[in-house]
Design goal:
This protein is α/β, with parallel strands linked by helices and about 260 residues long. It is built from nine helices and eight strands. It starts with a strand and ends in a 7-residue tail after the last helix. Bound molecules: zinc ion. Zinc ion binds near residues 6, 8 and 207.
């Protein structure tokens, strides 16, 4: 069984959601973890979570690209929901310097508050860190996590595309690296990083509907393509597909800290 640790399968692009889920099951994708974005995505996500309670597992959080004037109301809702229902993680949360820099101070505040909630609820986090405008979002996210030094904090640096040194820093902070479609891109850079990093630190993700792996690059991504990413990791590490499958699944399940899932 493989676990897709990050997929926005509630996205309106998945009109064919039953087919998409059947294909994922056919490829042995046993669980799909769903990161939330903002208030507007909660309903679709929770619908999937209740229709497929063993397969589609929800997170709760405010995505940095959705941080705006309404950040306080958005965070109040995240906090409220975190206390009301069961989620596997706080996510996705973090820093995005790629698009708009207007709300970067609020992004930091939202990130800090949500890290604290994860720590106090003993939930892992799914971190989005996208660099831009000459600022390294991974480094600034890691700096904040280091400064806060929160108890029980762990999780995934989702869509990890950093250097080997950055990978080691994430691991030292107690995090796993979420490896997705970028690992299959010729210019993705991960071909130099993945061979350096132990398999015990990696989890797999599609980030559907974004970042489809080769040969679907540029098309809509879906969880069924996770096997292409696993294959790429096996090739880069020169190990068997079976080992990648069992180790990354174990790594993902370890993060769930005793929440009964399988
Ligand atoms: Zn995402």
């Amino acid at each position: 069984m493989l676990i897709d640790t990050h997929a926005h399968i509630y996205d309106p692009q998945f009109e064919d959601r039953e087919t998409m889920l059947r294909q994922a099951a056919g490829e042995g994708i046993g669980q799909i973890w769903m990161p939330n974005c903002a208030r507007e995505t909660v309903e679709g996500m929770m619908e999937l979570a209740s229709a497929y309670p063993d397969r589609c597992l929800p997170m709760m959080g405010l995505h940095p690209c959705y941080v705006s004037e309404s950040v306080e109301a958005e965070l109040a809702e995240v906090e409220n929901r975190l206390h009301r229902s069961r989620f596997i993680a706080v996510g996705e949360i973090g820093l995005d310097f790629y698009w708009d820099m207007t709300f970067v101070p609020q992004q930091f505040e939202a990130f800090r508050v949500q890290l604290q909630w994860a720590s106090s609820l003993n939930l892992p986090v799914s971190i989005h860190s996208r660099s831009g405008h000459d600022r390294n979002a991974f480094a600034e996210a890691a700096d904040l996590i280091e400064q806060l030094a929160l108890p029980n904090l762990n999780g995934i640096f989702h869509c990890f595309v950093g250097t080997a040194d950055e990978a080691r820093r994430a691991i030292d902070l107690g995090f796993k690296l979420g490896i997705g479609g970028v690992s299959t891109f010729k210019n993705g850079g991960l071909d130099k990083v993945i061979p350096e990093i132990g398999l015990e630190h990696l989890v797999l993700e599609t980030d559907s509907p974004y970042l489809a792996p080769v040969p679907y690059r540029g098309k809509r991504n879906e969880p069924a393509y996770l096997r292409l990413i696993a294959r790429r990791v096996a090739d880069l590490k020169q190990v068997s597909m079976e080992l990648v499958e069992s180790q990354t699944t174990t790594n993902a399940l370890t993060l769930l800290k005793g929440i009964p899932t399988l």
